[in-house]
Amino acid sequence: MELKNYIRDIVDFPQKWIVFKDITPLLSSPEAFSFVIEDMAKNLVDIDVIVGLDARGFIFASALSYALEKPLVLIRKTSKLPYETITEKYSLEYWEASFDIHTDSIKAWQKVAIVDDVLATWGTMWAAIKLVERLGGKVDSLNFLMELSFLDGKKNISSYSINSLIQY
Question: What pTM, to 2 d.p., does this model score?
């Protein structure tokens, strides 16, 4: 399946010179979405937990959690989780932010697959990795629908197994 046919470019969003990759056409297609989840699931062998990143990573991580019958853990923007959390700051292409994770969400022995929609720069993924590792989890793989290769985000996280279905 040619997944790029289901990704729409939105020019100058959220700011000038950015070309946003809109995944809503893919999500609107049951065939394309099912294909993505089945293909992503092939790489998630022998894991204990699936971690999804706020917000679009939740979509793919929750479907994978259901399909693989694995626990789902959410990494959210700071102050969005109701229980005790730890925080990690990160930088994006156009701002700085931070992520939180519940302190009891991952156990030290667990192998973790982290899921997000896109690998652009490495900031958000690095924060997620640090949160999982601070809780003692072992990051097994980093999983994306798409990768913006021209931004070279992979170079700073290349010591981890990285899976992307679409490359730009």
Answer: 0.95
Residue 164 CA, distance from chain mean position = 10
**List of residues 6+ apart from 162 with CB closer than 8 A:** 119, 141, 142, 143, 144, 147, 154
Q: What is the pLDDT of residues 32-52, one digit of tens each?
A: 999 999 999 999 999 999 999
**Locus of tokens 């062998």:** 45
At position 27, the amino acid (one-letter code) is: L
CATH topology of domain 45-167: Rossmann fold (3.40.50)
Residue that is written with structure tokens 């995944």 in the block: 23
The string of pLDDT tens digits covering residues 69-101 is: 999 999 999 999 999 999 999 987 668 999 999
Amino acid at 161: S
Q: Is 33 left (phi over 0), alpha (psi -120 to 50) or beta?
A: alpha
Point out which residues pair with 64 in neighbouring strands: none
Report the alpha-carbon distance of residue 162 to residue 159 in Å, rounded: 9
Long-range CB contact pairs, 31-40, < 8 A, 24+: 31/1, 32/1, 32/3, 32/6, 33/63, 35/1, 35/3, 36/3, 36/60, 36/145, 36/165, 37/63, 37/64, 37/67, 38/67, 39/165, 40/64, 40/115, 40/143, 40/145, 40/163, 40/165
For the chain, domain boundaries: 45-167
